[in-house]
Amino acid sequence: MKPDYVRPLDLRQGRIDLNHGAGGRAMTQLIEELFARALANDYLGQGDDGAVLPAPAPGERLVLATDAHVVSPLFFPGGDIGALAVHGTINDVAVMGARPLYLTASFILEEGFPLADLARIVHSMAAAAHAAGVPVVTGDTKVVEQGKGDGVFISTTGLGALPAGRKLGGALARPGDAVLVSGSLGEHGMAILAQRESLAFESAIVSDSAALHGLIDALLAAVPGVRVLRDPTRGGLATTLNEIARQSGVGMQLDEAAIPVSAQVAAACELLGLDPLYLANEGKLVAICAPEDAEAALAALRAHPLGRAAARIGEVTADPQHFVQLRTTFGGQRLLDWLSGEPLPRIC
Amino acid sequence: MKYVDEFRDGTLARGLAAAIRAEADPARRYAFMEFCGGHTHAISRYGVTDLLPPNVRMIHGPGCPVCVLPIGRIDLAIRLAFERGVTVLTYGDCLRVPASDGLSMLKAKARGADIRMVYSAADALALAQREPGREVVFFAIGFETTTPPTALVLQQARALGLANFSVLCNHVLTPSAIQTILESPEVRQFGTVPLDGFIGPAHVSTIIGSRPYEFFAEEYRKPVVIAGFEPLDVMQAIRMLIRQVNEGRAEVENEFTRAVNRDGNLKAQALVSEVFELRRSFEWRGLGQVPYSALRIRAPFAAWDAEVKFGLDYRSVPDHKACECGAILRGVKRPSDCRLFATVCTPENPMGSCMVSSEGACAAHYNYGRFRDHAPDNGRSTPPATIRLAS
Amino acid sequence: MCLAIPARVVAFAADDQAVVDLGGVRKQVSLALVDGVELGDYVIVHVGYALSRLDPEEAEATLALLREAGALLEPASGEAPA
Lengths: 348, 391, 82
Known about the structure:
The complex is a heterotrimer.
Chain A: H1 25-38, H2 42-45, E1 61-69, E2 75-76, E3 79-80, H3 81-94, E4 99-110, H4 115-132, E5 136-144, E6 152-162, E7 178-181, H5 187-193, E8 201-202, H6 213-222, E9 228-230, H7 236-248, E10 251-255, H8 263-272, E11 286-289, H9 294-302, E12 311-317, E13 324-327, E14 333-335
Parallel strand pairs in A: 4-5, 10-13
Antiparallel strand pairs in A: 1-6, 2-3, 4-6, 7-11, 7-12, 9-11, 10-12, 13-14
Helix pairs in contact in A: 3-4, 6-9
Chain B: H1 10-23, E1 30-36, H2 37-45, E2 56-63, H3 71-83, E3 87-90, H4 105-110, E4 115-117, H5 121-130, E5 136-142, H6 147-160, E6 165-171, H7 174-182, H8 186-190, E7 197-201, H9 202-208, H10 214-220, E8 224-227, H11 231-247, E9 252-254, H12 266-275, E10 276-278, E11 281-284, E12 288-291, E13 295-297, H13 306-309, H14 325-329, H15 361-369
Parallel strand pairs in B: 1-2, 1-7, 3-4, 3-5, 5-6, 7-8, 8-9
Antiparallel strand pairs in B: 10-13, 11-12
Chain C: E1 5-13, E2 17-22, E3 25-30, E4 42-46, E5 49-54, H1 56-71
Antiparallel strand pairs in C: 1-2, 1-4, 2-3, 4-5
């Protein structure tokens, strides 16, 4: 008996319709011809409802992190929602000090979304996962009616293994510790803003979207005693440092002149009345370590391609108010507060 | 960034700070008002206060178009969006300003009102042109700097005969606001603050020139220095004011000679007076009714005046009773003197106008300076020992 | 108030528009409010409009005044290096 001929997905002209989420042949075809093929690995290939994974090594603990990704536009200079979903979740696992092992991905697709765009996103995701050596081992797809989604939403979960004895966390910063960042700030946030039609400016700013586990490996190899690692995504550096200050019950004193910001991000911020320290990053690291480890940590970061512009930007202080303060380039003091609300471009 | 970075140089700032200390008479107290929120922002952001001697005090004025926008004006825009189904376009600054019923434009948007942010008045006009079926209202705010662009789009709308576009005008004037601070009926209620001089906003003066302040310097015997918005410009202006006070002068001086002259931008002025006329009175948040302090759209452009087109009737809404914005805007009180400050009233949940925009006195103090309220000497923080400046 | 910033005019476009450059970022702005702008001039840009031209000589003169302020004084003791 000949198997039924099924016309392949039209990845050039086709669009998502409600059948792709209905659970029938169309859905199976979308999964097989696009997702499974692009993201191919043995776990995903089994086609079961879940992936059966080997237990971690004795003494290791598991780290689990999850992320939802909604980004407009879906494609931006330096990346797209697919690669971003992979990088973002790998980074959440990696900043815990864990070795990222597996990812899951679930897609909420909007009726009418072009299959060509979806294919581009999935292939970008596959390339990012492959480059990072972290496979997408199970996933899910749902379709919502037109107008009920923004093209595509992606949720990713990451599983990692935490070596025995390693302990990192936002509550571990101590007064006197050094505060480091791995590079210049605000690039992802500004790359996204620059795409907004209403703001219309041209720049060479690209998103810093990247998987940080290699950089973190290099850092922890040099300085196993790093106390806090974070990736300053939404809310930027300012918000991340305020979170850590609150978790650890400390304050911080930063030196504004030491905080790296690229000339173009600074200029675009001037134009829009925004502060780069509140803009999202997707490939940057904040590290807090004992002051005697700071030089070694900085050297390890700078030796890695993703940490060339790493800098020591300040220190942790004892402060019952948990204020993050900034010594300005003028030698005055100011607060670096939490982000309040969505950063909106200002006219005044 | 040429003509920006040079005016933010930390080394020059230290030199200028030393010059200010040398020129400030230790036997005197100096109180200067920086009228404009842009200056407030620069002072806070760069920690300029720490570089000034203790007898030189800067008082934040009401010069922030968002802060002085009364609740009732925002209500008009929200009502237009909800009741008339129009698309309201405005600058990002306006979206969070609190309005009646616990709303703001942003919250109204979440409830289905079509309210959008634009970068420029031209973008609002462009949307109306692109979508003739959509009724577009541009909610225009700002002092003399944003007024000429609004005038231009009104002219263009008339030239194009654009029937689906109008402007809800909230443009206000700088000199009359400064005058109000010095002599309004509320002065009795708030008391007055002895001001020794004013820093005037340079960007406003690129349009109106420095001349409008001359009457003011003569009439009230107060020195005025028109200053740019970079922190070194502000420090230089403070130094110039100290000199005027020391020498007993009350003149209008121009620190921003690189883009301001006595006459201003005559082309922009002509455009503004063709399109706009003075309102007899306009409500300012925190200041109340201020005579001849705002603009309305002239009759020939009535078809593009949202207030006329939609027959809007303005209703004044009082501010929160405990809110001290009125006194703070006049420099009589400091943000930390207000019971609501940093408790009920925060940038996430602003009660009063001064907390709304990042340029408001309360927001600037909350975002950049409130650690000083916890300092041992409560008020002026002690700079870290490493940068303690010889006095 | 009135976030305005000096930017260099690098190209002219139709309808009184020009492209300005600020630290490598480029934006189209309207020149409708200023006359006689030439390529290479600096203009002060606010909400997408040039409000006025910036005079480089006056900017230099102001900077010279600022530099002079510190030079008049002996460096204060106890100051940290910049």
